[in-house]
Structure formats: structure tokens, C-alpha cells
Amino acid sequence: MLHLINESPFESKSLDDCLKYAAKGSPILLFEDAIYGAMAGTSLEEKMKGILADHDIYVLKEDLAMRGVDQLIDGMKEVDCTGFVGLVEEHKTASW
Amino acid sequence: MKFGIMITEGPYQHEASDSAYQFTKAALAKGHEILRVFFYQDGVLNSTKLMEPQADDRHIQKQWSALATENGIEFIVCVAAAKRRGINDTVTADGFKIGGLGMLTELAIEADRVVEFRA
Amino acid sequence: MNEEMEENEEMAKLMIVFRTAPYGSIYAFEGLENVLIMAAYDQDISVLFVDDGVYAIKKGMDTTATGIKNFSPTFRAMEAYDIEKVFIDRTSMEERGLKLEDLVVEPEVVEAEAVEKMMEEQKNFFMF
User: Fold this and answer.
1) C117 contacts chain A (CB < 8 A)
2) Alpha carbon distance C91, C74 (integer Å)
3) B2-117: what fold?
4) pLDDT of the residue at C9
């Protein structure tokens, strides 16, 4: 299952809700405002590193670029929209 | 693969419609079949040809209409959601058709993947 | 698309997940609309309540003062539509101060760990 998160983790519980149900190893894609969760140097960095121990986290490049975010937490994987489609080929999706 | 797309958010207020558009374009470019794009809830507002954004911004309806007509994709605008929001076939743009909610169920039955784009 | 579907006799597993509280937004209402429409297609339907979605089936709703349509009674109709696979996440329910007797339907209680597997088993599912 690919978990799609589009809301800022500073504002929304979507990521936390998703993590209650997500199986270990299931990938997560951060896009739209959720990309701030991947940014280095925020108060969420330690929490996000903890999540990276159990899940691959992908971040949508186009949404990062649009928001001027280029410093990511180590281990975050950037994908473009084509990569997003590729992830959906491999997994069913849950939009939180 | 056979993809279905569901959009439940209106244009401009939120990025959902833009994300869905970019995803749909990328899926087509990778050779996937888009069985249907279902515009639901506030998402029906993407279909109106009365939309007039400022000239230096993207025109969300025209982008979608071009995608539908150039690729022969079916765009369904949920009839009940549309009626609630003042959308009918006198305002829907090229490529958009009004249809029942059952067409979303049919999409779920038929598609390998249905991806939801929402607020 | 319709012609292709008629050839496909096999039932698809489909699920509606309620994760939003009722009335504050339209999502729970639309989720219920989908459940009823899906039921007409004779598929293998499941319904799951998680997070604030558990409030959608709380007893005692009275919408008279606001004029918003009360869709609570419609949940009771799910049984009449032969929808028997109805589930609720235990933690979501307990965290939100609800017990099974507070609900207008009688869902089967599941643990959070079971949720992704239930989603994975579906042909497709929608979250509202």
C-alpha cells in the first residue's frame, strides 16, 4: 500500500493517522503541503527520521521546487510525477 | 494498467486538481490507459467553462478539456454534486459529461488503480 | 466500458472507509451515498469506520436546528441493502469516547494493525 499524504504535518493529523494503520515497510509519498515534512532542520526532523526507519518516504520534486525547499532530511527519496505514477503501478494507494 | 482518477476538490482553492492533472498526464505519457476521471464534490467546479482566471496563470478547465479531447478520456461530473453547486450541461466545458455516482462504482470495479486527489 | 463490465461476472471487493466526522464537511454523507450505490451493483462491499469517521454512526443525531439533512437513519438501512461487512477501528472508537452501544449500527471491532490488510484485499477502495 502506498500512502499518499498531501497536508503539512505541522497542520494536520493525516500523517499520524496513516502511521497508525500503515504496515511496516509500506511506502509513503509526501506531496503538496506535506513536503514540508521532508525538509531538514525543522522540529519534525527527529520524528521523520523515526518514520524512515520503518518506511520508505518519497517526496514529489515538483512540489518541493515550487515551494523552494531543497534541503531534505537524509534518506528522503525525491520522485517526479513520472516516479509517482511508477509507485502507483507497484502499489494500491490510500489518500489520507 | 487501467487507471481511474477521482477529484473531490475545486480549482485554485487547493492544489488537488493540479496534482491530479499532472498525475494523469504523467500516467498517459507512461502508456497507461485512463478509464475515467470522476469529478466529485467540489471537484465538479473544475468543469465550468465560465471560469476566467487571470491571464498569467494556468487555466485549469482548459488544461483538463485539452487532456480529455486530445486523449479521448472520459470525464464524468457527478450529477448530484453538480446540481448542488449550480453546474449543469449548459456550463460544462468540452470533454466533461454529467453522469451518475454509479459511474464511480463502475470505475472501482473496472480499474486496476483508482487514485483519489482531495483537499 | 459498460460492455466490458457485463462480461465480467466476478464480484469485485470494494470498500468505503469513513475517516471524517459528519456535518462539518460533506465527506461522510458522500461516503454513505457511495455505499448505497455500490450495493446496487451486487459487489462484495465492506465498510470501515476509522478516526473521526466513527462519529458518523453515533446515535442521537438531531439536525432540526441547522436544517442540514440528517443522514444517520440511512446508516441503519445498510443491512437492508445486504451490506454485512461493517468494521470499526477499536482505538479510534475508544479514543473518541464511544462504545458499541452508542452506535446506530453494529460493526465488528478490528484492531489498527488489521486495517491496511483490509485495504490491500480490495480491488479498490475510497476514503471519505
Assistant:
1) yes
2) 25
3) Hypothetical Protein Ychn; Chain: A, (3.40.1260)
4) 62
CB contact under 8 A, A94 and C127: yes
Q: Which of A13, A21, A95 sits opposite C115 (nearest CB)?
A: A21
Q: What is the CATH architecture assignment of C13-62+69-127?
A: 3-Layer(aba) Sandwich (3.40)
pLDDT digits (tens, 9 = 90+) for B15-65: 999 999 999 999 999 999 999 999 999 999 999 999 999 999 999 999 999
Distance from CA of B24 to the nearest CA of A (A): 9
Q: What is the ipTM of this complex?
A: 0.97
Interface probe, candidates B22, B30, B40, B41, chain A, greatest A C-beta count within 10 A: B22
Residues of B annotated as catalytic (active site), given as ranges: 78
Which class is domain A2-95? alpha beta
CA distance C6 to C9: 7
Per-domain boundaries in chain C: 13-62+69-127
Task: Say if CB C90 and CB C114 are below 8 A apart.
Answer: no
C-alpha–C-alpha distance, residues A66 and A82, integer Å: 17
List average pLDDT for each run of 10 residues in chain A, which is 96 residues long: 98 97 98 98 98 98 98 98 98 98
pLDDT (tens digit, 9 = 90+) per residue, C37-81? 999 999 999 999 999 999 999 999 999 999 999 999 999 999 999
Residue C7 has pLDDT above 70, yes or no: no
CB pair distance less than 8 Å for B36 and C1: yes
What does the alpha-carbon distance between residue B111 and residue B2 come to, in Å, rounded to a whole number?
5
CB contact under 8 A, C115 and A17: no
Instruction: State the residue for C-alpha cell 449548459.
Output: B90
Size of interface A-B (CB pairs under 8 A): 44
DSSP per residue over B62-116, as a string? HHHHHHHHHHT--EEEEHHHHHHTT--TTTBPTTEEEE-THHHHHHHHH-SEEEE
Closest partner residue to B111 (CB to CB) among C27, C34, C124 is: C124
Min distance B90 CA to chain A CA atoms (Å): 32
